[in-house]
């Protein structure tokens, strides 16, 4: 009894042509999705997650949430060229701590301008954050 394998022999990646076609269509769908989000004036999922995390950090620092920020973050002592609430970045093993909330958010928070960080209310922070978020 002979076994015939079709479509795998000449493909460099070991995938038949139907799988490659599927990958191309997923890329096209991704491009269409980006265009649609831009058309609707919406952020990508990754950007929306970052926005939510930055809002939570603002609430924690301004005591809108009942969480002690010292358990999560360490504020920088130097006040030269920062936004007033700059976090000290601790050195961690990225493999072990790369997914921790307090590790991921520090560099994004430190990149925010002082007028965004020094907002008086959560709504004002959200409005100002939406203006600078595409540049982060």
Provide an overview of this structure:
This protein is an all-alpha fold and 136 residues long. It folds into two domains: 42 residues; 91 residues, no CATH class. It is built from seven helices and no strands. The longest helix has 23 residues. The chain is elongated and about 50 Å long. The N and C termini lie far apart (61 Å). About 4% of the residues have low confidence.
Brief summary of the model shown:
With 136 residues, this protein is mainly alpha-helical.
Unreliable runs: 7-11
Reading the helices and strands in chain order gives: HHHHHHH
Would you report the number of β strands?
A: 0
What share of the residues lie within helices?
A: 40-55%
Supply the number of structural domains.
2
Number of helices: 7
Percentage of β-strand residues: under 5%
C-alpha Rg (nearest Å): 23 Å
The biggest beta sheet is recorded as: none
Structural class: mainly alpha
Given the C-alpha coordinates, what overall shape results?
elongated
Mean pLDDT metric: 75
> What is the CA–CA distance across the termini?
61 Å
């Amino acid at each position: 009894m002979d076994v015939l394998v079709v479509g795998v022999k000449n493909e460099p990646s070991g995938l038949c042509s139907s799988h490659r076609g599927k990958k191309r269509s997923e890329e096209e769908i991704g491009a269409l999705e980006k265009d649609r989000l831009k058309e609707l004036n919406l952020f990508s999922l990754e950007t929306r997650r970052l926005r939510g995390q930055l809002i939570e950090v603002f609430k924690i620092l301004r005591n809108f949430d009942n969480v002690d920020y010292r358990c999560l973050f360490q504020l920088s002592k130097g006040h030269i060229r920062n936004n007033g609430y700059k976090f000290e970045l601790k050195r961690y093993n990225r493999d072990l701590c790369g997914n921790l909330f307090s590790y991921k958010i520090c560099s994004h928070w430190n990149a925010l301008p002082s007028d965004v960080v020094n907002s008086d209310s959560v709504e004002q922070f959200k409005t100002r954050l939406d203006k600078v978020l595409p540049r982060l």
